[in-house]
Amino acid sequence: MLVAMAWRNLWRNPRRTLLTLAAVAGGLAAMLAQYGLTRAIGDRLIEGLTGSYLGHVQIHREGYREKRSSTRTVRGARAVLEAVRGTAGIAGASGRVYGFAHATFVRGRDAEVRRGGGRDVASPVVALLGIEPDHESDVTDIATRVVQGRWIEGETDVVIGQGVATRHELQVGDAFLPTAVDSTGAVRGPWAVSDRVPRVVGIARTGIQPIDDQMVLMSLSYLAELLRMDDEVHEVAIKAERPRELEPLVGAITASVARARDRTRHDEALPATRPLRITSVVADDTAAEARLVGVDVNCSRNGASPRSPAIAAGRFLERAEDIVLSQRLATAAGVVPGAAVTVSVPVACGPDVPAAECPPSDEPFVVAGILSSDEVLSGGAALVLAPVLSDNIAALAPEVMAPLTDDERRSIMPVLERVRGEVSAEDEVLAWTEIAPEMEDMLRMMDVGPLIFLIIFYIAVMLGIVNTMLMATFERTRELGLMKALGMRPRRVVALVMTESAMLAAVGVLIGLLIGSGIFTYWSFHGMDLGVFMGERQTFDMSGVTFDPVLWPRVTAFDVLASSLTVATMTTLAGLWPAIRASRLHPTEALRYE
User: Fold this and answer.
1) Sign of the CA dihedral 190, 193, 198, 202?
2) ∠ CA 399-404-409 to the nearest 5 degrees?
């Protein structure tokens, strides 16, 4: 009976009821539209950032993002990429190499360019990005952003950003001659890599300003050869099949990379030279005999413990010129971290020349650190990066290379394990939200800003509903007084008015959902085209990313449920004050009300 009475009371003044329902439904539809627009902008921002360059997940060597050191690479890149691509939930993965070069852009035929001829167009310093052209298309849409020419197909193909092309007046077909410093510190040019002339085959507009204004994109194999990087990359970019479920995917990728590392793990200590003489450059009369050991800092033995410090002073190996000495050796040579030293190693003069008559080869190094333990080999140890020993020093006298004995290996391995426990460069797997936290913060701000606006908006709507309900109780003062005179209790009066508010809320929410469904159905087919407000400029920029003006608003089930409950609750509560006022009416005063 109470429900029927409340429903009849609502339609005593249809105009007022319809206006109130319009306010409730319009408020809900506006709230849903605002949520949809906010999510559309956030989706487009994420899509523009991850789809055109960043990827959903990245793998780096730990510390690379902070220092951007060219030596901090992901080693065993082929095995890592194979493991990542075989992980469930991965849509694609691509390795990347970064570098810098002094580039000369030349206009002319191949023969002229090889002879040093042709017309120099520009000679800027550029950032280099080496990519796997086929696999990069699985991760980003950068290949579709070429506005002139074509995408990279061959090893010597080059694509430049539109900003680079405009600033230096470059065009498709120009020769690109980079000169860069490789991983060993040597300067290398294009002819050290290939006889073929690298040429600009395309100009891209990615919408990401650092790429468009500074970068030159090329084949990873070409850039890796230019920088002398063997089976290593600076970054692995990954695209997820379900971008909104990255946390479990990061865990799966980390496990896959760990298994790949276990399969490719090899012995840490390479052969050692014998004998070895280390001489201080400052005090060249001070020298010490030692053993030289090549260390692969990217391999760590299971169970390595960082409990005891392994470095007493300085740091561990990072660069090709670094050398780490035992305390006994550093004391004997009279050197400290930062000191320049010369390592004298035997040179093979040939079968007819006695080894004693062959002058040693002097190799320059810088003392990076000193070990805290003296129990490393009987005569002291000097540690260098494994590639330095195997590629440079070992080539001087291969016949004097000798493997470590079992006793020597047992002596040095605990020290190496402690060092790696402290400063080991493990791979880190990060989602885009960790790589670009400022973007995540901005998206959170985008969620909060509209919510504050909607709260203010709906408070105004609720005040209008309060006024409507209050007017309705004023008009029915005599009726309410008569019902109380006939025995209706105050709580029944409150229940009657609150039921009317609840009915308004329910009908208003239902109409609002119908209106919202219509709006989002239209947007699902046509999108929200902001181009009509932008005139001739048909793109807009946000946080350095260029966007298409057509947005595709969407809402989640949580958005719909939360908005509906919020509107219904606020509308129902809007009747509380009029209900309390009506329950406090005195029957005799109410019956005399005109």
Assistant:
1) negative
2) 170
**Hey, which residues does 232 pair with through a beta bridge?**
75
| Phi and psi based region of residue 186 (left: phi greater than 0; alpha: psi -120 to 50; beta: remaining) | beta
Q: What are the CA-CA distances from residue 181 to residues 72, 125, 142, 194, 227 (Å)?
A: 15, 13, 27, 17, 7
SS (H, E, C) 460-494: HHHHHHHHHHHHHHHHCHHHHHHHHHCCCCHHHHH
| 446 and 392 within one domain | no
Same domain membership, residue 309 and residue 282: yes
Q: Which domain does 114 fall in, by range?
A: 63-264
Rounded CA separation 177/175 (Å): 6
Tokens 């605002």: give the residue: 34
- CA 128 – CA 188 distance, rounded (Å): 14
Based on the structure, what is the number of domains in the chain? Answer: 3
Query: Do 151 and 251 have their domain in common?
Result: yes
Domain co-membership, 122 together with 260: yes
Whole-angstrom distance, CA of residue 524 vs CA of residue 519: 9
- Residue ending a domain, choose from 364, 394, 425: 425
**Residues 336 and 285 sit within 8 Å (Cβ to Cβ):** no
CA distances (Å), 381 to each of 31, 102, 324, in order? 70, 39, 8
pLDDT of residue 272: 38
Buried-state track 285-298, b at ≥16 Cβ within 10 A, e below 16: eebbebbbbbbbbb
| Residue 254, domain member (yes or no) | yes
Angle between helices 557-573 and 490-526 (to 10 degrees): 150
- Classify 347 as helix, strand or coil: coil
> Nearest CA to 129 among 49, 226, 196?
226
Task: Give a yes or no: residue 31 inside a domain.
Answer: yes
- In this structure, the answer to whether residues 14 and 74 fall within a common structural domain is no
> What is the mean pLDDT, run by run of 10 residues, along the chain of 594 residues?
74 81 86 85 77 87 81 85 89 92 88 79 89 91 90 93 90 91 82 88 86 90 89 90 82 81 48 44 49 59 37 78 80 80 66 61 81 57 67 46 51 49 61 78 71 76 77 70 72 79 88 91 82 60 62 85 86 80 68 58
CA-CA distance, 497 to 577, in Å (whole number)? 10
Q: Does 211 lie in the same domain as 97?
A: yes
Give yes or no: residues 234 and 349 share one domain.
no
Question: Tell me, what's the pLDDT at 304?
Answer: 32
Q: Of the candidates 64, 33, 49, which has an alpha carbon nearest to the alpha carbon of residue 442?
A: 49
Dihedral of alpha carbons 260, 263, 264, 270, sign: positive
User: Which helix (H) or strand (E) is 291 found in, with range?
Assistant: strand 291-295
DSSP secondary structure string, 220-275? Answer: HHHHHHHTT--SEESEEEEEESSTT-HHHHHHHHHHHHHHHHHHH---SBPPEESS
Q: Which two tokens stand for residue 366?
A: 């810088």
Burial label for 39, CB within 10 Å (0-12, 13-18, 19+), is buried
Residues 248 and 295 in one domain: no
Report the residue count for the chain. 594
Choose one of 264, 295, 323: the last residue of a domain.
264
pTM summary value: 0.60
